[in-house]
Design brief:
The complex is a heterodimer of chains A (about 90) and B (about 170). With about 90 residues, chain A is α+β, with helices and mostly antiparallel strands. Chain A has helices at about 10-20, 25-30, 35-50, 75-85, and strands spanning about 20-25, 55, 70. Chain A has a three-stranded antiparallel β-sheet with strand order 1-3-2. In chain A, helix 1 packs across helix 4. The two termini of chain A are about 20 Å apart. Chain B has helices at about 1-15, 40-55, 60-80, 85-105, 115-130, 135-155, 160, 165-170, and strands at about 15-20, 25-30, 35-40. In chain B, strand 1 and strand 2 (about 25-30) form a beta hairpin. Helix content of chain B is about 70%, strand content about 10%. Chain B has two domains: about 1-85, no CATH class; about 90-170, no CATH class. Classes of the chains: A alpha+beta (about 90), B mainly alpha (about 170). Chains A and B meet through helix 2 and helix 3 of A and helix 5 and helix 6 of B.
């Protein structure tokens, strides 16, 4: 998709995280994609390894579950903007 | 009385287990026997009574109501834990065993994303229940999501084994 090896799903996730930090299911609702949790976590972990997003545990405690909040890093923001510029001509946005 | 009773009914319906620490303090546990919270019934009752006192003008009348309320609540709460019939106990055990099966299913989820996956699944289930989805659909969605998390974790862990050349080029 781009020089940074980002998939369309990863671009969507980064765009959602650009607004505010979110947890897994919140991201699913925000990007309105019919994807499963496994695919989402995989994309998030892949981007975390590359340093585009960072995560922290939430304070809530449920029945054995705990929310993990993801936020975009400065590098992630830069990559997202670069990818947008790169993609704009394909959609005749320039 | 209704408000405390409603609060405890909400806990019970949500699958929580209420244990008495002493007469006034209850501990709330999840179906997996994990500690959730401690509730001081006196404080809870006092809070509700204070609310009533603030709302109404007649202090004496409300103090009488408050005393009746405290006594009645304690009787109801005590009977709530001790008076379950055999049939009800069997029903509770069956419900718990169903939830335990779900717990064992969660072992399939890799540790790296287990906690967040459980939290997300709980929210997905709550949302689908709010939308009046059928039990089968909810169960199917949950199993599909668990399978997806397990598949992605295992597949990408083994990617280097199945596609060594691809992994090598990535590393380079």
């Amino acid at each position: 998709m781009s020089n940074y090896n980002l998939t369309l799903q990863e671009i969507k996730i980064l765009s959602a995280l650009e607004i505010e930090e979110m947890y897994g299911y919140q991201i699913l609702k925000e990007i309105q994609s019919k994807i499963l949790l496994g695919s989402l976590y995989n994309s998030l972990k892949s981007m975390q390894r590359k340093g585009y997003v960072e995560s922290k545990w939430g304070d809530e405690t449920g029945q054995g579950g705990r929310r993990k909040y993801y936020s975009i890093t400065a590098l992630g923001n830069k990559i997202l903007n670069d990818t947008r510029i790169e993609l704009a001509p394909f959609f005749k946005l320039t | 009385m209704n408000e405390v009773h409603k609060k405890l009914a909400v806990l019970k319906n949500a699958g929580f287990i209420v244990k008495y620490k002493d007469q006034n303090i209850i501990e709330v546990y999840s179906v997996y026997n994990q500690y959730v919270a401690t509730i001081n019934l006196t404080e809870l009752i006092d809070e509700l009574v204070m609310r009533k006192l603030l709302i109404r003008d007649s202090m004496l009348r409300d103090l009488k109501v408050a005393n009746d309320f405290v006594e009645a609540t304690q009787v109801i709460l005590e009977s709530h834990t001790t008076s379950l019939s055999d049939a009800e106990l069997t029903e509770v055990e069956m419900k718990n065993s169903r939830k335990n099966k779900f717990k064992y299913l969660l072992v399939v989820i890799p540790k790296s994303s287990r906690a967040e996956c459980i939290a997300d699944l709980q929210e997905i289930i709550a949302d689908m229940k709010a939308d009046n989805c059928s039990k089968f659909y909810i169960g199917f969605t949950v199993i599909l999501n668990i399978a997806s998390v397990a598949y992605h974790a295992l597949f990408f862990k083994l990617q280097g084994y199945f596609y060594p050349a691809k992994q090598q080029s990535k590393n380079d």
